[in-house]
Amino acid sequence: MAKKKETVSIYDVVQGLSQAAANAYDGALTEDGEPLKAGLQREEGDVILDKRIMDGFGVSFVGDMMNLTYQSDVQLKEVYASGFEREIDQRLTDISNWLKKECKRITGKSVTLTVEGEIDVRVESVSRVRSWVLAKKIYKVGGFDKEMRVDPESKDLLETSWKTFLDQGGWKGRRPKNDTRPKGETK
Predict the structure, then answer these.
(1) Rounded to an integer, what distance in angstroms lies between the CA atom of residue 89 and that of residue 83?
(2) Which of 134, 101, 129, 143 lies closest to 12 in space, CA to CA?
(3) pLDDT tens digits, residue range 147-185?
């Protein structure tokens, strides 16, 4: 007798990954009482002696895709240094690996995350002193059905009355028969 492939509940996967992301709050401890290591910058160095770095991440879901976003305070000398984008990409990879481990610990089932496309890194400044980085990476969540995929096709949602209006030239089209204004007048 052939074994059936175990289907993964979409709800369980989304809930597991969301709970894993929620467990990574600043100051979180593991079951052993040790500080949690999710791959963030704030976990490096001495908590008391080193300057605290504010960074964090979040997840959101669209169809069978997971958007992983990362934000952190940065200095401009870090941005202009070579390998900045590679460093941010590695940080997002570390976070996604931690999310997979944490999701397996929470739900008891493993989840696969496959990178879709390239990383999107944006650096913005508040002042001459403060800057921050926003990075986004999209992952395809494995094990979802075809029904969960988002169709790239768009449907024509334009109402027929608007469509005929635009086909006739819109606001600059022919004037109706009952328009008695002089030709140059617009009011």
Answers:
(1) 10
(2) 143
(3) 666 666 666 676 777 777 777 766 666 677 787 888 766
CA distance 156 to 47: 55
The dihedral sign for the CA sequence 34, 35, 40, 42? negative
- Whether the CA torsion 22, 24, 28, 30 is positive or negative: it is positive
Closest by Cα among 140, 111, 139, 115 to 8: 111
83-to-80, 95, 123, 168 alpha-carbon distances in Å: 9, 18, 14, 55
Q: What is the pTM of this model?
A: 0.66
pLDDT digits (tens, 9 = 90+) for 61-77: 888 889 999 998 888 88
pLDDT at site 86? 93
